[in-house]
Amino acid sequence: MHALQYAVTLPADYDMDIIRDRVRTRGHLLDDFDGLGIKAYGIRERGVDGSPVNQYAPFYLWADPRAMNRFLLGDGFRGVIRDFGRPEVRHWTVVHHERGPASGTAPRSFVRRTETLSEGADPATAVAEAVAEQQRLARTDGVHTTALAVDPRHWELTHFTLWAADAPEGEGDRFQVLHLSAPGAGRLPTGEQW
Fold this sequence. Notes:
There is one protein chain. By secondary structure, this protein is α+β, with helices and mostly antiparallel strands. It has one domain (2-184): Alpha-Beta Plaits, CATH 3.30.70.100. Helix content is 23%, strand content 37%. The chain has four helices and eleven strands. Strands 1-5-3-10-7-9-8-6 form an eight-stranded antiparallel β-barrel. Strand 8 and strand 9 form a beta hairpin. The chain is globular and about 45 Å long. The chain starts with a strand and ends with a strand. The mean pLDDT is 96.
């Protein structure tokens, strides 16, 4: 399983209703995209929930890497490039995924938190500790889905948690979810991914 996110940072005075309209009129296009687990259409607004920027930053969990490639090289992502330029696309290997007690409801927000492993840290130990934290978090009321992903190029762990309500304050970047496409959510493997 792979996680993917790109962020389009917009001008400080950008009318975010343009993004809301974009998602309202186009978000359904991935509601049946074969190989996609979930896509959370996330935004951050400058001055809201501590965000310093206006940003469109959807988050994906892919059940099939071929589907991820088909998306990135296909018409859907061409539309992003056409409208906003070609953003940097971050992608990770998912090492843990769980659905939470609120997985049956539409998420309203998600949090992305990244931690860099210290030079001397044992990656297996760090991941095991992070998985234990994710397992506890997955049992929390209001959690829709949680995933832990690894970027072995930079040795970073990234925690993604979708919430049925507004995300609690704390560490990490908070995003409002405008729409959720989840054609393969039930096919995403749960638990540890190694």
